[in-house]
Amino acid sequence: MKVEVREPILALLFLIPACIGVAALYYYPIVQTLIYSMHDLHYTLDWIKQPATLQNYLEVLHSANFWQSFRYTVYFTVIGVSFQLLIGLGMALAAFGLSPVLRIIVRVMIVIPWVIPPIISAMIWKWLFNTDVGLIGYILVRCGLVAYPPAFLSIPILAKHCIILADIWKWSSLMAMFLIGGLAAIPQDIYDAAEVDGARPWFRFRKVTLPALLPTISVAVLFRSMDALRTFDIIYGLTGGGPGTATETLSSFAYKFCFEYGKFGIGSAYAMVVFLLIGIIAVLYVSRIQGVLRFRK
Amino acid sequence: MAEVHLKELTKKFGKVSAVDNLTLTFRNKQLTVLVGPSGCGKSTLLRTIAGLEMPTEGSVYIEDTLVNNVPTWDRNIAMVFQSYALYPHMDVFKNIAFPLQAKKVPKAEIKQRVEHVVEILGIAELSHRKPRELSGGQMQRVAIGRAIVRKPDVFLMDEPLSNLDAKLRVNMRAELKHLQKDLGVTMIYVTHDQAEAMTMANTLVVMNSGRIQQAGDPEEVYRYPRNMFTAGFIGSPAMNFIECYFDSERNLLVNQSFNYKAPATVRESLRGKLVENLILGVRPEDISVSLSPSPYAVPCAVYMTEPLGKEVLLTLKIGSLLIKAIVSLHLGLSTGEKGWIKFEEEAIHLFDGISGEVIPLPQLEDN
Amino acid sequence: MKKREYHHYRPYMTRAKQLLAVSLIVIFCLLPLYYIFITSLKPDGSEYKLPLEVWPSQPTLQAYRTILGGGDINFLVPLRNSFIVSSSVTILTLLLSGLAAYAIARLRFRHKIPSLLFLLMGAVIPLASTIVPTFMLLRTFGLLCTLPGLIIPNTIYNVPLCTWLLVCYFAEIPFEIDDAAKVDGYRPLQIFWRVIMPLSGPGLFSAGIFAFLGSWGEFMLASVVIMGVPSAETVPVALLNFSQYYRLQWTWISAGIIVSVTFIVLLAAFFQRWVIRGLTAGSVKY
């Protein structure tokens, strides 16, 4: 039959542009990065390229820089995503108990932090964390918690957490949006059934709402974790990795080694580690997604 | 086991009254069915009794206690929903155990009671399946199980059988009725299916537009409808309504298509009263059709025949009027043929054409 | 019992709680931006004065005039560039993703899942891990410091997500429509253009918005591709360079921020329905 022959060819035609693009700008580069990471590649006045197999990796794994940034990357991800989930959950639940007018206001509000480009939100928070006139310092002083506003971005331990705070601000709304979708997918009548069955509000939340929301939560957490592990923009914009190297993440080091120090081999090694981490999470993510898609077979 | 009493209950959504100044008592240990077309307020009424809706005005009493301000979870009621509302992430056992968990019943007792319930309902082997792995009928039983495990005062059922296929529905009706009797609970059952209502009810309550049209025994409601709505809603195929007026001189009920000799009961009750704007009501099964003329019988032509197995539903044309009659298969009338019809005297209903209320006719001795 | 309002089977929180919740959310989301906004309205130099005010005592548009002035600093150029890049990316992404998603969701062929995975797995690969070869690639094709050098990669970076979104949307259109169209004599490409595309309006809209927003805020690649060519900078890069050069002029930087985000904030606020719908398109169903 003509149709049987035609459609696969048509499908091929439709798929080719996207596939070529993805192959050229995703798959080819990652393979290249792998290759670079196995070469002694750097740029001083000229390109120097010599094969070095695993030497870069050894060097990296032995460097304090690597381990520090690795620890911070993981710490940043775990703390950040947890708080984003909590705050996002609060916002989503609140959004569901609101009358229509207020609900629209809230939906507009939560879109805003998400929409602002990460680098720009970093700048916003830079000003908020300004030692002399930053809002955060001002609030702390006003509340009597400290006498003088601390130098937020110059003290390593503070800087680390300030970045996490900025990240939480930006991404909680994304979690909220995911969770709103998840909450909306729960059939409404099971809440009625739970009420009739004698469940008080808190019991209902624990035993009906949360478990029903669990699939959405795990998908959202995995999704956001993949992103958090590769954070670059916020770090670069807020502290540039400082003070010293306190707030460097794997991605920021990858960038720096390549484009600031010219050591492409080392930078690529860092880049491959990032990829590996994300790949692990991605495997978890894919196994979690139960698509309810009906394809035409 | 409790009586539910509604006093002047009104529920408005914005300007629309879903339930309008309703006063009604659901007797203890009875199966009361609320029946009516979609949107008549029966589900809203049920939800108000459950506490899922707050009354705009009026009161709800369960066992003589005013429960308006008692939250749903503290009212000792159980409800089965049209969509079953099973908890999708819990298996059958946990679904049924849920209400007991909510009341902090000890674990051992929960196990015992749940196992007992699944035995009764014949779903023991499904205990560890999740709702999405169950068929409609199975989900239904789980929903019922979840309701009976608690031994509530009142059972509320919101069109529980509507999502089942026809055969299963008929079987389940009998089961539910048995269950109610065995457990001796007060059950309030909502449906839009009048046949279901008729078969199941101890007491039938017909509703329309938020108001009670008639309440009583099913047979009483069927035989002696108090208004046109009830008469037309209960009974299938529906009652025929014929506009006419009463000619007291000639003792005829006159319609533009035919004249019918008014029976004695009509003559008596209409003497000296309003004679125009009448509606004559007669059920299809109360019309006798014969192949040969007889005194006072009205001639008609067969417009359409619909065989129903052992009976035939005839649509008969008299002048410009179409009425339906149910006759035995043996009559042998087919489309286009002529027949003569008579209405069963005791089964004639007269309604006021403007108000829709029935005009009471003196009863003949019929026991 | 607390007074809850019920309306059509959906309980609300008490009025008081509602207002509290909304206030908290509004403060959380808007406060940082608000502070920047009032900073941008302060006269030059006065942003370092204490105490902080809820509204500047001497509001002025000085900062805006400076940055939009057209003298040394002209923020209109990056704005224009970003706009060009994002619009082009949106159109191209919709085209590429649309075709691919249509094929996967509605055409008959083997190897559907592998094709979809091939396209989706790109999203897993972080930009940091591909940026160097991408840079080299762009250099080879002479696309450095050009807008197409940003447009093409950004398009591809949006393809995985948009394809997934559109597959979900396309899959929701009943298949009988295709069959009906075929019976009526339409050929597959025609069916795509005249039947499916119009019906998936909301899906395309959501995907388009994502593509636009994503490419507007992209920084890493932009900073690398546009190396020191101010006329080709996009907003994020321009703003960062600006903030590093005029490190202490926070009124100016704030004005720059406000100018940069106003457009997309309005865009997203206006279309929040599609944004949220798009995000939940692939969510778990029971």
Summarize the structure in short.
The complex is a heterotrimer of chains A (297), B (367) and C (286). With 297 residues, chain A is mainly α.
The DSSP helix count of chain A reads 12
The sequence of SSEs of chain C as H and E is EEHHHHHHHHHHHHH
Give the overall form of chain C: globular
Query: Tell me, what is the CATH class of chain A?
Result: Mainly Alpha
CATH architecture of the largest domain in chain C: Orthogonal Bundle
CATH class of the largest domain in chain C: Mainly Alpha
Tell me which oligomeric state these chains represent: heterotrimer
Number of strands of chain C: 2
Rounded to an integer in angstroms, the radius of gyration calculated over CA atoms of chain A is 24 Å
Major sheet of chain C, described briefly? 2 strands, antiparallel
Major beta sheet, strand line-up of chain C: 1-2
Low-confidence parts of chain C lasting 5 or more residues at pLDDT below 50? 1-9
Relative helix content of chain C: 55-70%
The averaged pLDDT of chain A comes out at 84
Structural class of chain A: mainly alpha
**The CATH topology of the largest domain in chain C is what?**
MetI-like fold
Number of domains in the coordinates of chain C?
Answer: 2
Largest sheet of chain A: 2 strands, antiparallel
Assigned CATH superfamily of chain A: MetI-like
Write down the overall mean pLDDT of chain C.
Answer: 82
Task: Name the descriptors.
heterotrimer; A: 297 residues; MetI-like fold; two-stranded antiparallel ribbon; 12 helices; 3% strand; globular; C: mainly alpha; 2 strands
Structure report:
The complex is a heterotrimer of chains A (297), B (367) and C (286). With 297 residues, chain A is mostly helical. Chain A has one domain (64-288): MetI-like fold, CATH 1.10.3720.10. Chain A contains twelve helices and two strands, in the order H-E-E-H-H-H-H-H-H-H-H-H-H-H. Chain B has helices at 42-50, 92-102, 107-121, 136-148, 166-183, 194-200, 218-223, 228-233, 264-270, and strands at 4-13, 16-26, 31-35, 57-62, 65-66, 77-80, 154-158, 186-191, 203-208, 211-216, 240-247, 252-254, 259-261, 278-282, 287-290, 298-307, 311-318, 321-328, 338-343, 349-352. In chain B, the strands form four sheets. Chain B has a six-stranded mixed sheet with strand order 6-7-8-3-9-10, sandwiched between helices. In chain B, strands 13-12-11-14-20 form a five-stranded antiparallel sheet. A five-stranded antiparallel sheet of chain B has the order 15-19-16-17-18, with no helix packed on it. In chain B, strand 17 (311-318) and strand 18 form a beta hairpin. The radius of gyration of chain B is 25 Å and the shape is elongated. Chain C has helices at 15-40, 62-68, 76-106, 112-120, 127-140, 148-171, 176-183, 188-199, 201-216, 220-225, 235-245, 250-270, 272-279; strands at residues 6-7, 10-11. In chain C, a hairpin with a 2-residue loop joins strand 1 (6-7) and strand 2 (10-11). Chain C starts with 5 loop residues before the first strand and ends in a 7-residue tail after the last helix. The model of chain C is unreliable at 1-9 (pLDDT under 50). The chains are: A mainly alpha (297), B alpha+beta (367), C mainly alpha (286). Chain B binds chain C through residues 13, 47, 52-54, 69-71, 88, 132, and chain C through 1, 4, 6-9, 286.
